[in-house]
Design a protein that fits this description.
Elements: H1 3-10, H2 17-38, H3 41-48, H4 52-58, H5 62-71, H6 86-94, H7 103-118, H8 120-147, H9 157-161, H10 163-175, H11 181-196
Helix pairs in contact: 2-3, 2-5, 2-7, 5-8, 6-11, 7-8, 10-11
Length: 199
């Protein structure tokens, strides 16, 4: 019988509260050090000073543990800034803590990039639980701009929602640029706004 089956039979209480957050913090620390591919439940248990059985009482494996760890970090990207203009909203949201200029966040993203193409279970959970809410925040910014009359007719909001982070992350991970508020502003001013605004 596997550890998961044993735990299911015994039916011990699930880990929660502060202890859960300690384990999630440990998972983030291991993720930052070794990346997703080399992260193991044993390594997280050791960092959290917990048994592996404790982890399996709460998470059924590495994908769900890592996703929970990533979304346990509350960031401003859970809510779109509302400054009254499209440019202001984009800069206020994506240059804030937890946004595209947050080096810790982008390094964590880099640590899971390879897993997205190699681990279908992780990729599905990542897109549903981590990426989809962030895209919803981005889309909300453009929906408000559309309601204010800032956008030209026929703009694809779903495509647009991923444009700014997609371009900036390409610059960081592929080109080797440093993510700064100036980089985000240049992408907004030279690419996003000219592409979507009226006139």
């Amino acid at each position: 019988m596997s550890p998961r089956e044993i735990i299911a039979v015994v039916g011990r209480p699930r880990v929660s509260g502060d202890r859960e957050q300690q384990i999630l913090d440990a998972a983030l620390a291991v993720l930052a050090e070794v990346g997703y591919d080399r992260l193991t439940m044993d390594a997280v248990a050791a960092r959290a000073k917990a048994s592996k059985a404790t982890l399996y009482r709460r998470w059924d494996g590495k994908p769900t543990l890592v996703i929970d760890a990533l979304i346990s970090q509350k960031t401003p990207l859970e809510e779109a800034a509302d400054t009254g203009t499209l440019r202001g909203d984009l800069l206020a949201t994506f240059c804030a803590a937890g946004g595209l200029t947050d080096g810790h966040q982008t390094s964590l993203l880099g640590s899971v990039v390879t897993a997205i193409s190699r681990d279908a279970e992780f990729a599905a959970a990542w897109r549903e639980r981590f990426i989809a809410p962030k895209l919803a925040v981005s889309r909300e910014i453009y929906e408000r701009a559309q309601a204010r009359g800032e956008l030209r007719e026929g703009v694809d909001l779903d495509l647009l929602a991923a444009a700014l982070p997609g371009i900036v992350l390409h610059q960081i991970f592929i080109v080797g640029a440093t993510s700064t508020p100036d980089l985000v502003a240049r992408v907004v001013d030279q690419l996003i706004l000219p592409a979507v605004q009226r006139g």
